[in-house]
């Protein structure tokens, strides 16, 4: 499973950045333009609402599962990845670290 989660981490970073980096190169840190583009159509607004709600659910899962139930020593990378890239990286990274922790505890 670690290999699958690792591949999903790479894809979860590369695919979103493939779209974001060209936009950022053109617009820089223009938050107003970012918000305008992110809400330009109903479909874009739907996609962003979905990503934001998924991110909140993922952060709750990371804190409850990793920080609470499993008492993992490193939940911060999944949280940071979710904030910096999104759940496309945050979830597989957390699952990878969770798998490592579970393997360590059962070994």
Automatic annotation (TrEMBL):
What InterPro entries does the record point to?
DUF2834 (IPR021362)
The highest taxon in the source lineage is Bacteria
UniProt KW Transmembrane helix keyword: yes
Q: Is Membrane a UniProt keyword of this protein? A: yes
Question: Which keywords accompany this UniProt record?
Answer: Membrane, Transmembrane, Transmembrane helix
Q: Where are the transmembrane segments?
A: 7-25, 45-64, 76-97
- Its recorded name reads DUF2834 domain-containing protein
Q: Give the organism the record lists.
A: uncultured Thiotrichaceae bacterium
């Amino acid at each position: 499973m670690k290999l699958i989660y690792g591949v999903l981490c790479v894809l979860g970073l590369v695919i979103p950045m493939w779209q974001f980096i060209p936009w950022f190169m053109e617009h820089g840190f223009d938050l107003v333009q970012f918000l305008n583009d992110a809400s330009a159509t109903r479909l874009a607004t739907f996609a962003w609402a979905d990503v934001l709600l998924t991110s909140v659910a993922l952060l709750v899962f990371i804190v409850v599962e990793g920080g609470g139930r499993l008492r993992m020593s490193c939940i911060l990378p999944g949280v940071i990845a979710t904030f910096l890239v999104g759940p496309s990286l945050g979830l597989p990274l957390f699952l990878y670290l969770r798998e490592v922790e579970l393997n360590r505890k059962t070994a």
